[in-house]
Amino acid sequence: MLKDVFTSIGAAAQKLFTNFGAVLIALICYMAIWLAGYLFVVVVGQATQFQVVLSVVILPLLALIFFFLLQTIGLSYVRIGVGAGYLLKRALKDFWKLLIISLPLIALAYGLFWLFGYLDKKYVAGVETPKRWIELSLMAGRWLLLYLALPLVAIHWWMAAIREGLGGAIKGIGRSLAAAFSPRSVLIYVLVLAVFGALAWFVAFTKTHVSSNWGELVLVGLRFALALLLPFIGWMLTLGSMAEMTTRRALSEALSELNA
Question: Which of 198-213 are b and which e, b meaning 16 or more Cβ less than 10 Å from the residue's Cβ?
């Protein structure tokens, strides 16, 4: 299992770092998401009522489009011999499938956010001396469901939607759930994001003293840019590794059936 996991991660990393076009397009989408979020905060805080209404509709929609374009590229760049043009066409063709199939997951995520917020107010924040086990249970549940289970399910459901279409993905939800919580899938997700998350945290919060004010300013800017770039690389590598592992296992099963 470990060999399969590291082979998938290595193959995805090689294809990611040697496909400049894929990285560039994905990075543009990633920057567009951040820009849409920034403009939303700025416009809502300073704009007229009409501009606010317009921003509430257009900017979140643009952020959603670029988000799912990014996911489509992340799951497609591991295909053999694909260039930037193919990836862009593929992303524009398939991103809406990911958007539609994610609607139930978005609703579920919203429900879980509300539920954990309600439980936190009732049993932790609203209590003078909250019980430690309740606090830890809510924290563990929030992390396991919102930041582990839901992303894993989403990734494998996205792959099914790209590979089989919306109908096939919905019919094969059981296969997607089984694949999402397989040991290989969980290990790839946890390993890659833990490494790049730790690196991003280290870059963002480790203090480095520079005597020059300009040097300090440049260093802060570089650290901020790197802290944003590392999660992007980690997420792209996670998506690519998942797609690479799924493809390898499908080919292995097909060869086994032929040999049988």
Answer: ebbeebeeeeeeeeee
What's CA 115's distance to the chain center, in Å?
23
What is the percent of the chain where pLDDT is above 90?
A: 39
**Token pair belonging to 27:** 């990075």
CB-based contacts of 190, cutoff 8 Å, min separation 6? 148
CA atoms within 13 A on the CB side of 259: 6
pLDDT digits (tens, 9 = 90+) for 49-92: 666 666 777 888 899 999 999 999 999 888 866 777 888 888 89
The sign of the dihedral angle between the CA atoms of 179, 11, 29, 114 is positive
Buried b (16+ CB within 10 A) or exposed e, 152-189: bbbbbbbbbbbbbeeeebeebeeebeebbebebbebbb
